[in-house]
UniProtKB/TrEMBL annotation:
<dbReference type="InterPro" id="IPR036388">
    <property type="entry name" value="WH-like_DNA-bd_sf"/>
</dbReference>
<dbReference type="InterPro" id="IPR049874">
    <property type="entry name" value="ROK_cs"/>
</dbReference>
<comment type="similarity">
    <text>Belongs to the ROK (NagC/XylR) family.</text>
</comment>
<dbReference type="InterPro" id="IPR000600">
    <property type="entry name" value="ROK"/>
</dbReference>
<dbReference type="InterPro" id="IPR036390">
    <property type="entry name" value="WH_DNA-bd_sf"/>
</dbReference>
<protein>
    <submittedName>
        <fullName>ROK family protein</fullName>
    </submittedName>
</protein>
<dbReference type="InterPro" id="IPR043129">
    <property type="entry name" value="ATPase_NBD"/>
</dbReference>
<dbReference type="Pfam" id="PF00480">
    <property type="entry name" value="ROK"/>
</dbReference>
Amino acid sequence: MHSSPRTDVVPAATPAASLVFTTVLSHGPLTRIEIGRRTALSPAAVTKAVRPLMAAGYLVEGVDEEARASLGRPANPVRVDGGRALFIGVKVTGDEIIAVLTDLCCRIRVARHVQLTARDPGAVLASIGGLVQELLTEAEGFGVQVSGLGLAVSGDVDRVAGVVRYSPFLDWRDVPLAELAGTVTGLPVTVDNDVRALTVAEQWFGAGAGVSDFALVTVGAGIGCGLVVHGRVVSGAHGVAGEIGHLSIDPLGPLCHCGNTGCVEAIAGDAAIIRRVREVTGLPVTDSAQALELAHQGDPGAREVYARAGEAIGRAIGAVVNVLGPERVIISGEGLAAYDLFAEQIRDAFTASAFGTAAQCDVMTRPLPFEEWARGAAATAIQSFIGIDT
């Protein structure tokens, strides 16, 4: 992991301490008995893990008034002191940068947006540096040090090396983003794929909390998928696990920017939809809003384009469910603005593709603004701060 030296970290030096801290972070406040039940740790192991975390101020013990009123020794709940540390999360898109300041519980305290005027690494880093400086100034008002910076970028990202291998929407190749951003900001930096970062936030604080196996499918400029298997976010041996956008589902389909034909993204990504709507209607459609408006006005060609996109997404979800058998699939992303146009096709294609009882998988939608993607970046910084580097 490329980052500048840490001066302060959570004292979660053992797997048990890390497990206890993340369990309380996601599900707290919890009594020690509840912590033991959720982690399968003995009471002695829970006590051993909790003690240094409380001594350092990362965990605090409250008073359960109901327990106080009952007979016997009160079981006081333990919670994470969210104000103990602050983090900055940054989501970089092809058009803008979104940055948030969060506390240790990943609650957003301040959010900032800035439009990108250029996509080259130097220009993007300058914008990131400016936003980070603004948020560092905001952090002074909380009287707490910023302990880490998380950056989320679409594409092939090597989190361990801190390198963006390839980002199609930024046209980047082999950019050592963690090292560069660390030099610019002076903060410990974590860089991850944007969908994986959002998956971390959903696992700890969102619709995936408490679910050991789930998939997060994002629709929009790209089609992404974050995977959690047995409680761990899966990156794969080469860091590209979950790239369902590049499942080739139609050998005779359109050419994808990855070089293959008939990829889900080449059918259901924003650019593909805009291009196809322009072709079938003959109208000068230039963005998603115009394509969406045409479809909502009832244009049959535009509606067919969205129907085909829904079918592609549904088939991709079916493939994920067949291979991994998750308990839940969460659909999110800015493409949900068109969900009413392709919800039926997603559902039908998923049902047709899912094998046997896999069709019982809970498929749900969860609209999330881009601030939540930046929050996901902050969640990866919190992971690194705790000592969890997936």
